[in-house]
Structures are given as structure tokens and as C-alpha cells.
Amino acid sequence: MLGKEDKQTSFFDADFACSHLIDRNSFYAKMHDCADKIITDDDFADIYCLDNGRPSVPPARLTKVLILQNYENLSDRKALEMLRLNIAWKYALGVPINYEGFDRSLLVYFRARLLINNKEKMVFKKTLQLAREAGLLKKEVDQVIDSTPMLGAGAVKDTYELLRDGIRKILSLMDKKKKSKINLSLKAYGKRDPKPKINWQDKTERQELLSLLVSDVKEVLSYIDVNSENIDTQLKDAANLLAKIVAQDIEEDKENKPKIKKGVAKDRIISTTDPEMRHGRKSSSGKFNGYKTHITKDVDSGIITNIDVS
């Protein structure tokens, strides 16, 4: 059920007891003074049940915590530590001095809820609207655009591990009856199965492992009809992902044996946990794995007017 901020003040409120400790020009003071004009619990009413269940942590409070976390570039664990111990955070959020916070897993669920319901830009858009109403942002503006690397969170794997992860993903989604019919060359696809132990300096051993992995890929995919109307969506996506990994990284030699392609395929998938991540370059020598963040900014006011990720 939708929980809402309690606006009643008490002696234990940080803004009552600690306001004299906060720099009035700081981000925390500005957030304390302005955030409630932009972020309200009612803005999130359509993604919560309104009349059933226990009250949630107020979504406006969660949103403010995410903003502070991003401002200080903190992990979820560190952000919740700051919420519990830091006076400036408590003042910015308008919570009591003795507020203990909540479990950090709630930040993960809340981010997912925002994305699923297309609300990840809501606060940003309301901020721009407020800036226009205050006369800080004109109707017509001169803008500049800039791009910066953003590191991905998915695990980056080599070809061998991409194939193994792809097979493991499919097996985890298949029903037991169909899975029991599959005859695999390797027994290395369980959650706790370690990477096959071979001499990675030995070309022959690497080739033998690759042949076994490709054989298992073909075996697994042979039991999946991606064109079937009844196929599970997750299973279809996993099968298509594995097929793409094979197509981008594997080719056959003159003896029809699989080998890893030379060079890097265009738009190469580098992670099964985040298939949209890509290799990128800051410069000719600086590499990163993830995304590009693109930002447009009003030249006169310096206000960011849009942001996107590719």
C-alpha cells in the first residue's frame, strides 16, 4: 500500500534540531527547501495499491535517497549507512534524527518499479517545468551536447564463458521433461559448476573445449523452436541470445571444426547478464565496457535539458 511522508514536526526532526549545522548554500539545504515542490508521494500513486497491505516506505523518500546516492556516487550499502548516520542526509530528507532507514534491497526494487512504469524521468521533467516557471529556463534555448562513458554492471566474459552462460540460462528455463532428453558433452552448466579446468596455454586443449561447448550449444538449441507460438518468452530470448553469441564469435575452419573468429565483431555482445552492454573507447588507448551517456545543456543557464543512454 502507498505509504506517505508524515509532515508533523517534532523535537527529534533533523530540520528542527540541526538546521543551524547545515551550510545554507549546500546541496542538502537546497534539497531540503525545494524537493517537496518537485517530489510528492501522490506522483507514484498509480504504481502502488492504495487500500490494501502494509504502508510502503514513502516513494518520495526513496526517490530523494536515490538522488543523494547519485550526488555522492555511493553504493546502495553506503547510501543506507549515510541515511542512518549522516545529519546532512537526514536534514535533506526531512526525517527524524533517530530514523534508522530501511533494507538496501528496497532501492533495487524501487528502481525496477520506476523503470517498469516509465517513471525514471518523472522527477527530471518536473524539475525542468519548475525551472521554466521560475524563469531560469527560456522557451527557446541554445543547447550543447556532450557524451561520457558509463560503466556497465554486467559481468564481461570471454567466448568460452559466454557460451557456457548461454547454455546454463536455457537449461534453467527448460522444463524437466525436455531437459532430461538432452545429451550434453560437458557437465559444467550448474550454478556452482566451476569453469572447466584445462591448460589455457595449450591450443589443442582450448580447441577441444570449444568443440565440446559448440556441440552442446547445438544440442540445446535443437530442442527449442523459437518460431513456436507457445514458446516461453524468456526461453525464446535466451535461445536467440545464445545463437547471436555463436554467430558473432564462432566460425568453422577447413576441417569444419569450430574456431574463434579473429577480430571483434561489430556490436559484439560481451555479457549474458546485460546483453546490451558493449565495448567502448574513451580514446585510442582508453577502453571501457558499458554505455554512453548523452547530455544536453542550456548554454545560458547551465541547466541540463535532457539525458539519454545508448
Folded structure, characterized:
Helices cover 41% and strands 12% of the residues. The protein is an alpha+beta fold and 310 residues long. The protein folds into two domains: 14-136, no CATH class; 159-260, no CATH class. A hairpin with a 5-residue loop joins β4 and β5 (287-298).
State the gist of this model.
This protein is an alpha+beta fold.
Characteristic key phrases:
310 residues, alpha+beta, 2 domains, four-stranded antiparallel sheet, two-stranded antiparallel ribbon, 12% strand, elongated
Distance between the termini: 35 Å
- Runs in which pLDDT lies below 50 for 5 or more consecutive residues are none
What about the largest sheet?
4 strands, antiparallel
Q: Which series of helices and strands comes N to C?
A: HHHHHHHEHHHHEEEEE
User: Structurally, how many domains make up the residues?
Assistant: 2
β-strand percent reads 5-15%
C-alpha-based Rg, rounded? 26 Å
Overall structural class, as computed from helix and strand content, comes to alpha+beta
pLDDT averaged residue by residue:
90
Helix content: 40-55%
Number of DSSP helical runs:
11
Count of β-strands = 6
